[in-house]
Amino acid sequence: MGFRLIPKEEKFFSMFEQAAQNMERGVLALKSLVTNFDQVQRYASEVKAAEHDGDTQTHEIIAKLDKTFVTPFDREDIHALTSKLDDILDLAWGVADRFVLYQIEQPTPQMVEIIDLLVRSAAELRKAISKATHLKYDNIIEHCVEINNLENQADQIVRHAVADLMNAGGKDPVEVMKLKEIYEHLERAADRCEDVANVLESIALKSS
Amino acid sequence: MGFRLIPKEEKFFSMFEQAAQNMERGVLALKSLVTNFDQVQRYASEVKAAEHDGDTQTHEIIAKLDKTFVTPFDREDIHALTSKLDDILDLAWGVADRFVLYQIEQPTPQMVEIIDLLVRSAAELRKAISKATHLKYDNIIEHCVEINNLENQADQIVRHAVADLMNAGGKDPVEVMKLKEIYEHLERAADRCEDVANVLESIALKSS
Amino acid sequence: MGFRLIPKEEKFFSMFEQAAQNMERGVLALKSLVTNFDQVQRYASEVKAAEHDGDTQTHEIIAKLDKTFVTPFDREDIHALTSKLDDILDLAWGVADRFVLYQIEQPTPQMVEIIDLLVRSAAELRKAISKATHLKYDNIIEHCVEINNLENQADQIVRHAVADLMNAGGKDPVEVMKLKEIYEHLERAADRCEDVANVLESIALKSS
Q: What global pTM score does this model have?
């Protein structure tokens, strides 16, 4: 086969793909948590593990970025992409941890719905990042449009779920606070997915 | 009159002016909402329409930016300006929607006061953006200083209104939560106005 | 000794050192506030004074940055460093003000603990900024790692303190809201310390 040099960019690309896969892994663990809520501790640990690995990957990408002169994309795009991907995992872990710490008895149906949307967003992001890192920009915009749609859906569900919760009357106000905080973290996770999509769209437009 | 080429920058400029006018339109619809609260649904739809148009404009500006090599201002300034303008409308719509969804009986006098400050900020922003897009940087700083003052006033009103609400005692805690959330969204809208002003100030300083 | 020109960069550097010292002063005043809570008004005024001076310094640094072509570090790093330093003071003042406005009877032991961590973070930041402004990058990473550790500790304390507060039962829900908001502001202050550390780490890596 002969000798082949792996160019710097290729390593960079594979680091990105790993970060995207790890993000998806964390979101899938959150999905397992809400659908197997009798094992909430176990799945919370899985989300935590993904979040921890994400921290390490983020740190490595940023460190590499600061020491690399030639990069495939604009420096600020890489920075935004990496830190927003990391934010998704931080928020997923924030949700998982709050289910445990706040002694939530059962996730609400709307929480499960939003996490399903997050799972779909994570898959779209992973595919779009894989294409970007192979310099195939053709269908990236479609993935990004889909992620924007999923975020809009999540936003609507959260807003109405929180309103219903508050309008219900007779609920323990502290319980309302706990659930509201979990909803808001889920919404922010969907927002960060959209932020990553916006960066990817920018990268695709600049390269087209 | 003869034939005249419209340079790329001029189109860019007019897109900015439109986005600023649309932002002001959304803030004015929010003002109509609180002063004609019996027609809350109608004015909420008007805020929503402005927010929706703002999304389209933002998307067009960013897409144009990513495909344009020469731009009038620094690329990152345009990006910040556009996305922060859009945030103001998102927050105005968030407030309008919560008045409806949370079944608020009546906006508080302090909410009307803060929205009056937002109306004044929006007018200052629209004027400053119009000057910047005509490359007349002379009085931009004055507009920015005024927007900073308006934000400080809004911040003070919000902080004291929330404290009074919480210190009152005997209120339904969930009702406190609802009003507090609306106050916090109004404060964030004022913050985003200040963010836009800071970008404009930067543009003016770089060009002077 | 003879005549010596002070280069532009040196002025820039000393402005940074002053901003870092002023930030530490604000955090120390917040520490005095919680340990001398019978003089809460007096120490709140001290935090406010630091916040006010910080605003002036931030404005001066940004204005100088916009008019300076050659700067010691990347323009966007200076911008991020300055505005995040300012955020720490805004949040410290937000906490001090809320102790007064929300008529808090006594800070909780966990609040004192977190403020102790903030004091340590502020000292690390001040040292790291002093080194960076003397172009001595050798041990900056160590300071940054320590600030990250301190943020992780603060995050853990806040999350458990808020959970304990909400799980306690029988508490006045509005009182829970007040304390929760103070905890969340303290956590955000620790987050902003970490943000500053991340920028410093970037600067150090780029220069090594």
A: 0.93
